[in-house]
Amino acid sequence: MSGTESPVLAVLCGDKHPPDMEPIEQVAAVRYTDADGLADALRDADALFVYDFLSTAVPGAWHAANRLRWLHIASAGVDPVMFPALRESDVVLTNSRGVFDNSIAEYVLGQILAFAKDFARSIKLQRERTWRHRESERIEGRSVLVVGTGPIGRSIARLLRAVGMHVAGAGRTARDGDPDFGTVHASARLNEHLPEFDYVVAVAPLTEQTKGMFDAAAFAAMKPGARFVNVGRGELVVTGDLVEALRAERIAGAALDVFDTEPLPPDNPLWTMENVHISPHMSGDFVGWRNALVEVFADNFRRWRAGQPLVNVVDKGLGYVPSGG
Amino acid sequence: MSGTESPVLAVLCGDKHPPDMEPIEQVAAVRYTDADGLADALRDADALFVYDFLSTAVPGAWHAANRLRWLHIASAGVDPVMFPALRESDVVLTNSRGVFDNSIAEYVLGQILAFAKDFARSIKLQRERTWRHRESERIEGRSVLVVGTGPIGRSIARLLRAVGMHVAGAGRTARDGDPDFGTVHASARLNEHLPEFDYVVAVAPLTEQTKGMFDAAAFAAMKPGARFVNVGRGELVVTGDLVEALRAERIAGAALDVFDTEPLPPDNPLWTMENVHISPHMSGDFVGWRNALVEVFADNFRRWRAGQPLVNVVDKGLGYVPSGG
């Protein structure tokens, strides 16, 4: 676009507008909208900032996007906007890769330590004012498979290596000598490798290839004492199969930050299972994350205004930002 | 002693004998005893292995120790056997320094992550089947003061540095350029330095100098948002002052693995306080710890039989094994 005219920017948000937008408001006509007003806001808009990244409203309003050229989403996963009409369009899609990496890595390390040191039981015993000594596990020397080799998976791998765990990755292409993972196994042959690991961390993007990859066969392949951590997407897992594997003590525990239905419905059996740690899709959301998300958008907005290449451009065929891209 | 005669070894234990003692039983007359039989077992004994390291029975039976030359305790802290008659005797005292270091470091890191990621509240909300998103804290870049610069403190410092925290130490002598801590502040001026730190970890040995060092003045000096972690000894803390500081929200939380009375009595207010994580003196006790403790003793026993210098010799004036000693 030319740098002289004032572009129209639609911002999909709830009641709460994104912070720190003043610099952008000075150079663009900004239309803040909720889901109901999205179609109106998209008409003649040049760009769309999906700040409410859990919204599923974009496909239904897409028909009104008559001159959109850029869509930025305030999340790492782009699955909510990977509908056919966007895929097939010329609209450039960018995401917020990088913002959540280290925060999610800390969350994963925390959950691994919570399992190893039996924190949930300590809290339960504290509630009962009961002093009961137990032996706990070391994490040094234990093995972890990180399924997903994007930047979040890499940050997890680096942190877990730093505390002495043995880490491998699983991704599209098997390889050795990866700087963060060492060995990367092929996700297509995941179940052959699962028996080797004490912990399995799911952080793959949600695509047609990864949907439901953690099913009964995968949980059956894991070590009986294995713990499963999901910080990717709920739909990577066949939830019923996970519940069954936990009930049968086929695996020893699960820490889940994401679910196929969010919020997790009150009648879901996961809520009340022993050895399940539930958190409400918050692993990446450190204090200041909303400002950081707007900063990533604002940086790309400056590039877009200046006609420079955008960062974090999603490969709409793959469903994520390719490594090195 | 001569290597030809068979020494008499008293072992203070409860109902459960230490594991892996067969090699020692082949070369020594081993007398396993509980507290009631300790005086009888000590008569004519050459060495005492205090396997039940929480026992307070040794001072009361000490009068019978007519030819004891060596006392080994299966713990890092030697305060249960630091009574005047032992101090003044020629009996060599050794401890189990090293066994618990890395396990306790992992526990401390886990507690710090539990605070930062609000795990206790997640567990509470899970019990109520309530989905409530919160923002969480990063640990990278946060500051920690480790009070106690022995091997456990050093292991804690190394692990917390590995995950990107800013670490300093507090010990007897102020200094810079320490390989693990960088800066070490003087414990005598602790309260001047406490305001700088997000987390304060107590792991000092219990001595006349350190007893009650965490009192009302210390908690008043800490940051209002600070968290306190005690993996040293309960008596390092004036418990009533800690309770008061937590009640007044003078500090934000405490993770306590040790208490001035153990087991912690059911009516102690700490059990029911928000933001207090209680565990039953287990932070170092990984699966296999009992075997590891006996291994440390058996190694020293071999040295003792061979007339070689013992390792982990406690300076009975200081109350711990001096660094580099």
TrEMBL record, chains A, B:
Residues 110-283 form the D-isomer specific 2-hydroxyacid dehydrogenase NAD-binding domain. Keywords: NAD, Oxidoreductase. It comes from the Bacteria. One of its GO terms (molecular function) is oxidoreductase activity, acting on the CH-OH group of donors, NAD or NADP as acceptor. Pfam families: 2-Hacid_dh, 2-Hacid_dh_C. CDD domains: 2-Hacid_dh_1. Residues 17-314 form the D-isomer specific 2-hydroxyacid dehydrogenase catalytic domain. Belongs to the D-isomer specific 2-hydroxyacid dehydrogenase family. This is Hydroxyacid dehydrogenase.
